[in-house]
Amino acid sequence: MAHRVAVTGLGSLSALGNDVAAHLAGLRAGTVGIGPTQGIDVSAMKTKISAEVRDFVPEQHFDPRQLGLMDRTSQLAVVAARQAVAAAGVTLQALPLHRVGAIFAASVGFHAVDESYRKLYAEQAPRPHPFTVPRAMPSAQVSHVTMDLGIHGPSFAIASACSSAAHAIGTAFQMIRGGMLDVALAGGGESQITYGMLKSWEALRVLAPDACRPFSKDRSGLVIGEGAGAVVLENLDHALARGATIHAELVGFGMTADGRDITAPDRDSAAAAMRFALEDAGLAPEAVEYVSAHGTATALNDRTETAALHEVFGPHLRALPVSSSKSQYGHTMNASGALDFITTVLALREGFLPPTMGFNEPDPECDLDCVANASRPAAIGAALSSSFAFGGLNAVLALRKAG
């Protein structure tokens, strides 16, 4: 028997704000959280903008012992997870231990790595911080989430670059639908705003110098962001029995691998992931009323994603809004699938279309209704949230409005 899966809790930190209410307000207002990088010295860099989480004070959330063990990525992930569980109103400790799990994106603790290299190579220190390894390990954030919230069931991290958090949410969905779990916490955090990583992204020549403009003809690249998103997924019957608020229903999950190139996306593979999500959900393409695009604002991604959308939706695409909220809170890398998913849930729940900001001129190769420069009210019944990662690892989630 396949169980239906409800979204009952949301938590987020992004350049739009440090909780879901601020994230929602920013989406509706068309706020752009991208600006001059403040957290590190960028005087030696060509790219001086990013989408940072502002006014986050770790000491307000963690005691000194915890902070000694946590990279910024784990800090953001744990705070988002706490928000999601509090919003869901679920008492995890009252459930059987093996029926609650946590599946999160895998993400290196880049701040811990950067700090250790600076000490060893620049300062000639004899040793780095003694907890560099547990701070930096890719599974750190999910471990800290389980320890912080007392989760003892199936828990692990998934690594698929910018699709990691979407794969994590999709895997949690499958585990609940298949009967392994009653409740799962899923999502991901990421903070790559360090000197070493920003210089590495500069070397790829994909960073925009001034703004993120998805689907606009004058787009010039992505903007690095940081943040975290976490959702509580729950067996729908379990959620209804306890009187939980249902924000949306997760109904389908599609995955593909391009198997072609480490950085260039593939149209047919992206289209197949969307089709598989629709088939899994039992949705006809014409039933979809909004797509939250991967939409990185690189020349190749946006063109390829548009072609894939044409392949899947055909004539329906003319009436289908497709927007990229990365124009507002940057590309949060391994966390992006979670934040984009939360954005899609809010669009369904609140009845509006999140905008694509920074749009200046139409591109014939990106002939979409990208909800340019302002949100719009809209009653949305079904939506897709797409993630297409470096390495050709793709994940697409299909959602229905609750009720």
Q: Would you mind describing this structure in some detail?
A:
By secondary structure, this protein is of the alpha/beta class. The protein folds into 2 domains: 5-241, Thiolase/Chalcone synthase (Peroxisomal Thiolase, Chain A, domain 1, 3-Layer(aba) Sandwich); 252-401, Peroxisomal Thiolase, Chain A, domain 1 (3-Layer(aba) Sandwich), CATH 3.40.47. The protein is 34% helix and 19% strand. β13 (382-388) and β14 (393-401) form a beta hairpin. α3 (72-88) crosses α6 and α10 packs across α11 (299-313). The radius of gyration is 20 Å and the shape is globular. The protein starts with a strand and ends with a strand. The model has no long low-confidence stretch (mean pLDDT 97).
Provide a concise account of the structure shown.
The protein has 403 residues and is of the alpha/beta class. Helices cover 34% and strands 19% of the residues.
